[in-house]
Amino acid sequence: MIPLTLNEKLIKEYAKKIYGFSFAKTHNYHDAWDLSQNILLQLCKIDFTSKSIADMNGYIYRVCQYSWSNYVRSEKQFRESSCALGELQFSCESEDIVSRITDGELYQKLYREIMYLGKTKREVTIMFYFENLSGKEIAKKLEIPPATVRWHLGESKKRLKERMSMTDVPYRPKKLSIYFRGTYSNGNGLEMAGLRDDLLVQNICIACEKKPLRIEEISAKLGMAAAYIENKMDGLIYMNYVSKVGSNKYKTTFFIKDAEFYIAKKKFEAEHLPPIANAVYSAVKKYTEDIRNIGFCGSELNENFLLWDIIPAIAHNYLMKHQLPLNEEPPMRGDGSRHWIMASWQADEVFDSCHDIDKDFKEYMLNSEGYGAKHFGNENCAIEQFDPPAVTGYRRRSDVYEIEGLRRMHSVIKQSTPLNEHDKEIVSLLAEKGYVTVKDGKPSIMIPFFTLDEYEAFREITDNRILTEVETAVGTDIAYRYAEYIKKYIPSYVSETEKAFLMSDFYCPNAFTYLLYKCGSLAFPSEREQKIISTIAVGKA
Questions:
Q1: Which three-class secondary structure state does DSSP give residue 242?
Q2: Domain annotation covers residue 241
Q3: Residue 72: pLDDT over 80
């Protein structure tokens, strides 16, 4: 008779052998862990003091077989074992596995996977398995019912089982291009959300864009601990970039232009823009002398560079004039602002996912992107700047000092004022950046610089004469054609409001100069010209 109670001696003696049996049956780390816990639980229920057991090894083996049969039935996933054990045996392989687990491999993997669980499940699981707290103790500590603790433990068990059986695949985060259209506050709303610059925030939005997900589902998708995900959610919800669905799921509120959408948009541009670009070029050439005769600073610039400066502004005016009407207001944000989110994969992400892109089309996509009209300055002087094609090598921003310096140089030139020492410092800075050259001690501004009256004359020529001829040549329905074309690439999960915005979002002034450069109408700018290309200044006389 072997009088035994369920004590540390029994657990210590048989735990490794039970795990070896479990692994031989399941062939899976986590399933083996799960089955071995079931077996130990059955052994806990046995009163060994009332039993006379001659062969403890055989007895425990029968308990193992009984637990395995129950496990197969409950889990509905019978797996034939190649090991038909007549008695409790252990192969070298299972001993090696157990040794590695003893060394902490499984422990570390399990703990890592727990970090992907949602907050409450994570806390309950850690308290139960690692801090050895009872269900009642956990319930009291977290101020939740014991039944809720049991539910969380059950759900955690299922999800850990899934995660532990998965092969670790490194997640490759995507970097989005993010623009805003509408108004946004100078407060901390955008900074709080981090959408523009935070890679984790962007990938959270990617993860739950197509359907609502729980925190732990986002965590598993990104390979990032749930605690980090939770830390970013408050800002995203505050700015209405992510909404909460039900009690525990999250859904991105804006559409992210993926490779399919991006390529479709660019194909439409590549097919439909060349006739418009050629019409703009022909009309501008026709009225170039009329534009020069306005007499603005820079009117003497060479024709090629002048066209690089003027054409994006005219393209901008044409596209804005004929945009599809949008009756929907931009979504309200937590900081009181209203703006649309224009989010898309970056070009390299698109190319990585599409290896069969035509070389010329790929080149077009690379060179036709960029910001639209950017305005810098104040009521005294402002700069309108467009991104040139990437092939030119420069995409820059003007600063306040440059703008004030240009206004001062404009005043010096118009009034024929000698340069003082401060002026010479300004000239040195602006010359380095390409805005100014000096000949015989006299500065010249190397971009079109208009007074307010001169700019009005410029707009009269471009808006009333040039655009009229362009409209006559190629029509005014480009935005309607785009809307009809692109709507079939907008997924069904996108809201009707967002869909209306996407269909109206046809704007690509940066593509015009690239198309004209590729067809030979525009020559490649000089190195100095590249620094300041596609820039117009307007200031008070």
A1: strand
A2: yes
A3: no
